[in-house]
Amino acid sequence: MPDFDVAVIGAGNAAHCAALAAQEAGARVVILERAPETESGGNSRFTAGAIRFAYRGVDDLREIMPDLSQEEIDRTDFGTYTEEQFFDDMFRVTRFRTDPTLCELLVRQSFDAMKWLRSKGVRFQPIYGRQAFKVDGRFKFWGGLTVEAWGGGPGLIDGERSIAQSNGIVTRYGCRATSLITSEDKVVGVRLREGGREHSISASAVVLACGGFESDPEMRSAYLGPNWELAKVRGTRFNTGDGIKMARAIGAAAYGNWSGCHAVGWDFNAPEFGDLAVGDGFQKHSYPFGIMVNANGRRFVNEGADFRNYTYAKYGRVILEQPGNFGWQIFDRKVLHLLRDEYRIKQVTKVVADTIEGLVAQLEGVDGTAAVSEIACYNAAVRTDVPFNPNVKDGRRTEGLLVNKTNWANTIDQPPYHAYQVGCGITFTFGGLRINDLGEVLNVDLEPIPGLYAAGELVGGLFYFNYPGGTGLMSGTVFGRIAGSSAGKLAMA
Ligand SMILES: Cc1cc2nc3c(=O)[nH]c(=O)nc-3n(C[C@H](O)[C@H](O)[C@H](O)COP(=O)(O)OP(=O)(O)OC[C@H]3O[C@@H](n4cnc5c(N)ncnc54)[C@H](O)[C@@H]3O)c2cc1C
Fold first, then answer.
1. Is the backbone peptide bond immediately before 226 cis, with ω within 30 degrees of 0?
2. Residue 92: how many CB atoms within 10 A of its CB?
3. Residue 28: DSSP 8-state
4. Minimal CA–CA distance to 450: which of 471, 431, 436, 469?
5. Cα–Cα distances in Å, from 4 out to 1, 8, 199, 207, 280?
6. Within its chain, how far is the Cα of 13 from the centroid?
7. Per residue in 356-380, pLDDT tens?
8. How far is the CA of 297 from the centre of ligand 1 (A)?
9. Would you say the CB of residue 147 lies under 6 angstroms from ligand 1?
10. Contact 64, 57 (CB under 8 A)
11. How many CA atoms lie within 13 A of 478 on its CB side?
């Protein structure tokens, strides 16, 4: 008899969902987590807990947030986010490259996955403030992202962990999986480094849920390209591609957008890896309401191309490509009240002035003369006759510029002026392993490797070029549940 029926590698959201689903199938499950307990939970712990799923209206939302009060419902337009809208978003941002089977599972199972998490005891709440603005006394949600885990990422992981614990699932911290053990082509266990010694455990099935390769600078520059070793890591330092390498070493296929990743505008002076005390506070995601200039004093991107949920994940790369690998975000008084909470943290690279000249003089590394003339040209190009509305793509645009801003274009002419320096923060990598609809890892002949399953960030094929905000947690939930359930059934057969 093996030591365990199912061994789950990693202790983020995908891993916990896999462990709970495997246990539902009757399996004896162990979670093996590389990080010490204090740093455990992977990138999932660093999130704001925002999670994307299809819903038909407030009645669906009530099913996963039974404590939603009538008063909240009365003052909020939750709208709908249909499966068709979710498909459209996935197709549009990935330029139709998303794997159809994986995308179908993600979208169609998203609402059910939320109900499943809720049934396990995970709690959710609406994301007021960041995903809905108040207009005429009512909040209106936009961009398909309506719900976050109670307590954000830490709340989600602590909740999942205590649910796993109370179900008798043991988690071993400081326990790094180093390779897979096979017998006659079947995975039968895993080698570990734990407490300074090497050993192994046997299991009828192994679920890899141990993240992408974003925290390994060599893999970043090898696969994402030059300069990616210079990016800051937004989350955990432990996702160094181990799961991908272990599976590839026994013949697993590579799949998806290996040169692509999720990367955002991130405080230029943020530390090398994420800081759990700050969480996702180093991100700076209110650029749709301002402008960004580079070292040459020039705007370089359409800050208002779409809602932030559909642009933020690809703009980190654009910032990395600028001279000196940075940009400055500039806002004036008119929009300061719209800036997200992350603009008010202590650890921020920020300058303030009462004149444009006074501001640009403080923008480290920027050609000030060019920046002053760039802002003047931008101001002159704004269609101020079109009303500004942050809740919809308002079409308030600039005209005649080399790089136009196509929504939410406000002149920058009312002091105080605020500017924030951003660099590139990598969130997670898009390339990874290939799985089928049962969560089984496929080999290079596209046949399942018996006993091996995968979920979460290290699965390739879902995201290409870009990503709709809140889909990482949903992907981990849907595919973690599928992989865990399949692994559990195999072990119990
Ligand atoms: C700052 C930040 C904010 C984000 N905000 C959101 C958000 O609001 N909504 C959203 O949907 N997504 C968000 N994301 C993306 C999201 O975090 C990921 O898509 C998702 O959490 C990945 O889950 P996972 O379980 O696959 O990986 P992780 O949560 O990263 O878990 C991987 C685990 O594997 C462990 N591990 C690694 N190697 C080994 C090994 N060899 N042996 C054992 N264990 C190992 C790690 O320690 C870790 O616990 C954010 C990411 C970051 C960094």
1. no
2. 13
3. -
4. 436
5. 8, 10, 15, 12, 36
6. 12
7. 999 999 999 999 999 999 999 999 9
8. 36
9. no
10. no
11. 26
What single string gives the DSSP state of each residue in 471-482? HHHHHHHHHHHH
CA atoms of 402 and 481, how far apart (whole Å)? 47
Instruction: Say how many C-beta atoms besides its own lie within 10 A of residue 59's C-beta.
Output: 8
* 163, 120 contact by CB (below 8 A): yes
DSSP summary character for residue 142: -
Q: How confident is the model at residue 279 (pLDDT cuts 50, 70, 90)?
A: confident
Tokens of 294: 């580079």
- Ligand 1 centroid – CA 75 distance (Å): 34
DSSP-based three-state secondary structure for 140: strand
Atom of ligand 1 nearest to the CA of 243: 41
3-class SS at 50? strand
Q: Is the pLDDT of residue 35 over 70?
A: yes
CA distance 119 to 63: 10
CA-nearest of 170, 167, 171, 187 to 179 is 187
Beta bridge partners of 206: 7, 452
Q: Whose CA is nearest to atom 2 of ligand 1?
A: 47
Contact (Cβ atoms closer than 8 angstroms) between residue 437 and residue 105: yes
Quick one: which H or E segment has residue 374? helix 368-381
If you compute the radius of gyration of the chain from its CA atoms, what whole number of angstroms results? 23
Q: State in Å: Cα 211 to ligand 1 middle.
A: 6
Decide: 441 and 455 in contact? Cβ < 8 Å: no
Only one residue has tokens 């407490």, namely 195
What is the DSSP track for 85-103? HHHHHHHHHTTT-S-HHHH
Residue 76 main-chain phi, psi, to 5 deg: -135, 135
Burial class (CB in 10 A: 0-12, 13-18, 19+), 480: buried
Counting beta carbons within 10 angstroms of the beta carbon of residue 192, is it exposed (0 to 12), middle (13 to 18) or buried (19 or more)?
buried
Determine the residue type at 410: N
- Look up residue 165 and give its amino acid: Q
Q: Given pLDDT bands bounded at 50, 70 and 90, which one contains residue 129?
A: low
Contact indicator for 177, 246 with CB cutoff of 8 Å: yes
